[in-house]
Design a protein that fits this description.
By secondary structure, the protein is mainly α. 63% of the residues lie in helices and 0% in strands. It has two domains: 371 residues, Ammonium transporter AmtB like domains (Ammonium transporter fold, Orthogonal Bundle), CATH 1.10.3430; 37 residues, no CATH class. The chain is built from 16 helices and no strands.
């Protein structure tokens, strides 16, 4: 093996850390699949997990072809441009403003787009067609994610006016949360929603998924400084402290409301805390991160409780866990940012009202754009493609009907597969099907 010289301007330490951080963030997408899979009924486990796995394929390709260029390929106020389409000009030299290879910067940002698109699946699980959802993720990652990433990270209008977002409150958290609400309204509720208990089938999956997400979040937030220096260290530490405080507050809320500390509640709290600190992790002190972690629990918990009493089947509470928690983090920057910690800007509590104004602008405009663009996209797609499976398929479960497999094989080892998912010749080779109860 021939050792190659490090290109000028590349810091080997930063590069090594960013390689690890990129792998950590990529791992978060299957972790999300596990988290979501535990929250649905057994007959939809595989389909739910496959929505996240699908994002690893179609969104990564879309990001390489055009998404990255729209986000980072220029400094226009609304979109970046197309100079980096098909990775043109993306090589081993340093990405501007960093000491890591441009190619690594692209890969790190790709993992963000992948998991953000996958997050929206939580709003439409157990009834949306798999193929339609894959197409949706491709288009959404271009018209929503890439555009919002450019606004705040790629030199767009929010960045030009000083809006701060360290690791994704705008294009990841608020975008996914409010897009999830739009998707739930556009696709409609499950046929059994409000008529019977639709309970999580495996709380252990949920806890394990949440734990792996928290682990990956150290790369998500810590890597967003693109360096092993102070910004990454601060973000890393705050990613430990904020979710811990969210957990404590969530425990107290659960105890007050129902007398029990629930496993699903604990897993949700971990996600809410990680989301809340995401935009602020590199801009506030560790003590303020703890305060933010506790505060983030309050609106998210309230929305989780309220949503179950409505006809809005935003199934896995992406709005509460990501949209509201991300919005809280974005606004908190405007209050508690400290230049002595971040070297960039102070917030209102340290004499800078202007910063709060632009954080509030992002908190207003981004949810509106994400919701409107997503709702319009799905309604337009619905004119050409069926968004939902049939009621019969929904009753049987999407695993067998959309994938020809089950997450949990029946005692006889049979798989229920109908002619809707396999041809007659393939069906004849299968063992006798055992009906799956709705």
């Amino acid at each position: 093996m021939v050792a190659a010289a490090t290109p000028p301007g590349i810091n080997p330490g930063d590069t090594a850390w960013m390689l690890i951080a990129t792998a950590l963030v990529l791992m978060m997408t299957p972790a999300l699949g596990l988290f979501y899979a535990g929250l649905v009924r057994a007959k939809n486990v595989l389909n739910t997990f496959m929505m996240s796995i699908g994002a690893l394929g179609v969104v990564a390709v879309t990001w390489a072809v055009v998404g990255y260029s729209i986000a980072f390929g220029g400094h226009g106020p609304l979109i970046g441009g197309f100079k980096n389409a098909f990775l043109s000009g993306v090589g081993f030299g340093p990405r501007a403003g960093t000491a890591i290879p441009h190619l690594l910067f692209f890969a790190f940002e790709a993992t963000f787009c992948i998991i953000t698109a996958a997050l929206i699946s939580g709003a439409v699980v157990e009834r949306m067609r798999y193929g339609t959802f894959l197409i949706f993720m491709v288009v959404w990652s271009i018209v929503v994610y890439a555009v919002l990433a450019h606004w705040v990270w790629g030199g767009g209008w929010l960045a030009q006016h000083g809006t701060l977002d360290f690791a994704g409150g705008v294009p990841v958290e608020m975008a996914s949360g409010f897009s999830a609400l739009a998707a739930a309204l556009a696709v409609g509720p499950r046929k059994d929603y409000g008529r019977q208990a639709l309970l999580p089938h495996n709380a252990v999956y949920v806890l394990l998924g949440a734990g792996l997400l928290w682990f990956g979040w150290f790369g998500f937030n810590g890597g967003s400084g693109y360096t092993i220096g102070n910004p990454g260290v601060l973000a890393f530490t705050n990613t430990l402290l904020a979710p811990a405080c969210t957990l404590v507050v969530w425990f107290l809320l659960d105890l007050r409301r129902g007398g029990h500390v629930t496993a699903v509640g604990a897993a949700t709290a971990i996600v809410v805390g990680c989301v809340g600190i995401t935009p602020a992790c590199g801009y506030i002190s560790p003590i303020w991160a703890m305060v933010l972690g506790g505060l983030a629990a309050l609106p998210s918990y309230a929305i989780v409780v309220w949503r179950t009493r409505t006809r809005v089947d935003e199934t896995l509470d992406v709005l509460a866990a990501h949209g509201l928690a991300g919005l809280t983090g974005i606004l908190f920057i405007g209050f508690a940012a400290q230049k002595s910690w971040n070297g960039v800007s102070d917030g209102l509590l340290y004499g800078n009202l202007h910063q709060l104004g632009w954080q509030a602008m992002a908190a207003l405009v981004v949810p509106a754009y994400a919701f409107g663009a997503t709702f319009g996209l799905l309604k337009l797609m619905g004119l050409f493609l069926p968004l939902r499976v049939s009621e019969r398929v929904e009753s049987l479960g999407l695993d067998t009907q959309q994938h020809g497999e089950e997450a949990y094989a029946s005692a006889e080892g049979a798989i229920l597969v109908t002619t809707e998912s396999l041809g007659a010749e393939q069906e004849a080779r299968l063992p006798v099907a055992v009906p799956v109860q709705p």
